[in-house]
Automatic annotation (TrEMBL):
Secretion signal span: none
Record's protein name: Helix-turn-helix domain-containing protein
Domain HTH hxlR-type stretches: 24-122
Domain of life: Bacteria
One Pfam family, short name: HxlR
PANTHER family for the chain: TRANSCRIPTIONAL REGULATOR, MARR FAMILY (PTHR33204), TRANSCRIPTIONAL REGULATORY PROTEIN (PTHR33204:SF18)
Keywords: DNA-binding, Transcription, Transcription regulation
PROSITE patterns per the UniProt record, alphabetical: HTH_HXLR (PS51118)
Amino acid sequence: MATLSAAGRRDAESRDYNANLAECPGHQLLATLSDKWVTLVLSALADGPLRYSGISRIVAGASQKMLTQTLRKLERDGLVARSVTPSVPVRVDYELTALGESLLPVQRAIKTWAETHIEDVATAREAYDQR
């Protein structure tokens, strides 16, 4: 029976850890929610439905490709609903679902915490960088 070297054990433990992360609900959703475009799109839709062009104006700096990918990701995760109205031209609206709306208080709490503690974080970063 072969025994694993220390490096082999670390590699095996790392694979197990990464496999567990992939199955962890918190990790799965935090990976999506930590994306800056996701946060900005959710905030843009907080006040009600918008067309793509409206979202694009609010989320300045996002390329068309990035904004489209972000909206698809949010729709896939059930946070945003896309509705198509057959007209000329076709009208497409995006709005938060009930699930997406339930995320807004969490997002606002994180924003409030960041605004309250940014000075503390800046001070800690400066002290760290001086060491």
